[in-house]
Amino acid sequence: MIRMLLKNEKRWSYWEVWYDETDRLYSVHYGHVGEIGDHYAIVAEQIEGKPKHVLKVWAEEMKEKGYVELAEEDLQKLIVCFPHLSESDVEMRYFIEQLLDECLGKTGNGHCDGGDDSEGKLAVCCRVIDLEKAVVAVQEAMAIARLEEGMSLWTLQDDGTRIALHVSV
């Protein structure tokens, strides 16, 4: 996947593209960070060239429009904790990871990076572009799934310091 950003006057625009070998489709997703974006797919047979080359050419075209490629280290860490869930709740952990991946992905604001339940509680790490908008999206997604009770949201600074963003009782 290639993820790129463009800083507009008031907000970030995102553009992402990936190739699915199984379906032989190029998928393009774009919009404004924190808002549900648009998506379209192109069948590989309609494009000349190998997928790696095609993706590289498209990324270069976006760079010419002012977009910059986003590296993993450019993303902020958002930790979603559920102290009432443990390692025995494996199915719930995968459900929550998928839910977080979807709520962040459809708004171009990042992805779920996996979970950890080794300390007797579930902690899921997400990598996000806009922390404020990610907190809102996660709170909404967890409320819809009726999982917000007891949930807390944290960010990790580069030095490892944890900062609370939301704690639900």
Structural commentary:
The chain has 169 residues and is α+β, with helices and mostly antiparallel strands. It has two domains: 2-69, WGR domain (q64v53_bacfr protein fold), CATH 2.20.140; 74-167, Alpha-Beta Plaits (2-Layer Sandwich). The protein contains three helices and ten strands; from the N terminus they run E-E-E-E-H-E-E-H-E-E-H-E-E. The chain has helices at 51-64, 90-105, 131-144, and strands at residues 2-7, 12-20, 25-32, 38-43, 68-69, 76-82, 110-116, 122-128, 152-156, 162-167. Strands 4-3-2-1-5 form a five-stranded antiparallel β-sheet, with helices on one face. A hairpin with a 4-residue loop joins strand 2 and strand 3. The radius of gyration is 18 Å and the shape is globular. The model has no long low-confidence stretch (mean pLDDT 90).
Key traits:
alpha+beta, Alpha-Beta Plaits, 10 strands, q64v53_bacfr protein fold, 26% helix, 169 residues, 5-stranded antiparallel β-sheet
Strand count, sense and barrel status of the largest sheet are: 5 strands, antiparallel
State the share of residues found in helices, binned by percent: 25-40%
Which structural class do the helices and strands define? alpha+beta
Radius of gyration: 18 Å
The CATH architecture of the largest domain is 2-Layer Sandwich
Q: Mean of residue pLDDT?
A: 90
Name the shape in a single word.
Answer: globular
Strand percentage: 35-45%
Strand order of the largest sheet: 4-3-2-1-5
Total discrete domains: 2
Q: And the CATH topology of the largest domain?
A: Alpha-Beta Plaits
The SSE order reads: EEEEHEEHEEHEE
* Fourth CATH level, the homologous superfamily of the largest domain: Multidrug efflux transporter AcrB pore domain
**Could you give the count of β-strands?**
10
Number of helices: 3
Main CATH class of the largest domain? Alpha Beta
